[in-house]
Amino acid sequence: MAIPSRVLNAYRQVEPTLDVVDRYVSQTLRAWCDQRSYPFKGRKKELPSLSEKLESGRFERWSEVDDLYACTVVVPTATHEQAVLGFLSDAFEEVEVRRRNSTQKPPDVFRFDSTRFVGKIRHFPGLDIPEEASRIQFEVQIPTAFEYAWAVVTHDLVYKSDDFDWRKQRLAALLKASVEQSELLISGFEANVEIVPKSPHPDSDTKQSIVQIFRSLVESGVISGELEPASWSRFADNFYSLVKSYAGSRTAPVKALELAEAIKVRIEETGDCAELMSGSMFQITLGLVGAKIVPKASLSNFVVVDSVELRDFHNLENIPKAFDFDG
């Protein structure tokens, strides 16, 4: 693409400073995003795209262009936005925040409208960057995961197309409408659960009962809160897998409840687990299965991650199928 010489010269003049902005903002944001598992992507404005943007007639001067450098912080849902904006305001000089749904939009229109932070590098004594870098505005887009996926999929198909096709625009809008529908369902996830009709499913019902039994033991102090699993659903899955390893799929729902109730009775009677501060809740189950509190329960077909806690706290030794740490 041919670029007007005035635009080319202006860009070439500012490009070295843009590289500085790119490095500084990327390093600052990427480390913060990595700690929170937020995907991050940054880029300098491509010259052809910049030239076409200036030709739109929306800008009166060079200093108004706020995305010569732009980046994206992808959040799981819109509820995470405020934490990102808080960090951006602390790390950089805020110029403007354009929040989602803040621009006028007819109810039958679906387009990109994620929250955007416009800022500049906050210059202070000792900062090892050229002072002119602090005069360049940059943009941080904060889309949700669904919005980002929509933008990535449709951008080249629609906005970098070789033609202008009403049908492509329509399809992009339809996809964005689907994204908004998904966002609404997720934002009200807990409330929306209540409107979903529930079908009977013995495996799922049993896992729910397992969680209820063990959570009640934690809440009553019979099991130390230090052993509460990071994921109750994963704990229930593991518990159920153990039962299936000796009982089979057909009788697993009955046998899983039988084991859970037997464990509840045993540890309420002994009080042995109230002071445990190390290991895991699942190790309690392993230890009591090994102790044969339910006669036909067995660890013979289940891979167990051996550890000191199993031996010292739960008297579980000679594990039939121990996990191999490969050395």
Features:
327 residues, alpha+beta, Beta Polymerase, domain 2, 5-stranded mixed beta sheet, 10 helices, 8% strand
Layout of helices and strands, plus pairs?
Elements: H1 5-36, E1 40-44, H2 47-54, E2 69-73, H3 81-91, E3 93-98, E4 115-120, E5 138-142, H4 145-159, H5 166-187, H6 189-193, H7 202-219, H8 232-270, H9 281-290, H10 308-314
Parallel strand pairs: 2-5
Antiparallel strand pairs: 1-2, 3-4, 4-5
Helix pairs in contact: 4-5, 7-8, 8-9, 9-10
Q: Largest sheet, described in full?
A: 5 strands, mixed
Morphology call: elongated
CATH superfamily membership of the largest domain: Beta Polymerase, domain 2
Reported CATH architecture of the largest domain? 2-Layer Sandwich
| Fold-level CATH name of the largest domain | Beta Polymerase, domain 2
Mean pLDDT comes to 86
Helix content: 40-55%
Secondary structure tally, helices = 10
Tell me the total number of β-strands: 5
Cα radius of gyration in angstroms: 29 Å
CATH uppermost class of the largest domain:
Alpha Beta
Strand order of the largest sheet: 1-2-5-4-3
Terminal CA distance reads 59 Å
Tally of individual domains: 2
- Unreliable segments (pLDDT under 50, ≥5 consecutive)? none
How would you spell out the order of helices and strands? HEHEHEEEHHHHHHH
**Could you say which structural class the secondary elements and strand pairing correspond to?**
alpha+beta
Strand content: 5-15%
